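Moderator note: this is an archived Q&A kept for reference. The question asked for a predicted structure of one protein chain; the sequence and the answer are reproduced below.
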Amino acid sequence: MQAVSGLLFSLFALVHLTNTALAVLGADLYNDFQTAARSVYQSPLLEVVLIATLVVHIVSGVLRMRARRGSKASPPLRLRLHRYAAYYLAIFIFGHIAATRLPALLAGAPPFFGGVSFSMHFAPWWFYPYYALLGIAGLYHAFYGIPVALGVVGVRAPQWVRRGPGFWVPVATGAGVIIAAVLAFGGFLYDIDDPFDNDYARAYEAATTYFTGDEP
């Protein structure tokens, strides 16, 4: 169950990571890709399937973690990092989904590039490390987990993907691209429009006013 659910959800994760990487090349390309991708994975049935798949993957992972309790075996570094990435993702993933989907569903304000940039400028002390770690954790968890999950269902990945430079070089390169994308959202790579002048920022400010009664 964990392997199959992980493989299914990894399809979405890879699309999401690709979208993030495109931020390095500019807001327009990022937004165009997101618009095209959202038209597919945010169809009602597929979105429910994705959420259900994610829940199954997390629950099965927690059950396996409980089954390992008391084991004195020391896993190798790559597996430990895989598990640490899973813990980080499990803690923040549903908050991330809520922060991106609720404004779109309730106010017609999906984040797009401007929304992500708004969050970076609104609380940089939180969102720079949060987004960088979220992207790198997702990348590492998928890149390590996909070959393992394929092996569970009887498909053996090439050895160069499973160990050595064939594993670490793509992961390190991808991590560098994610960090560059975070800097792009923050306006360090090129000039961007006013991050507070977009539908997502206005929806957040309206929600803040509604719940607190204070002007943002």
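Archived answer notes: The mean pLDDT is 92.
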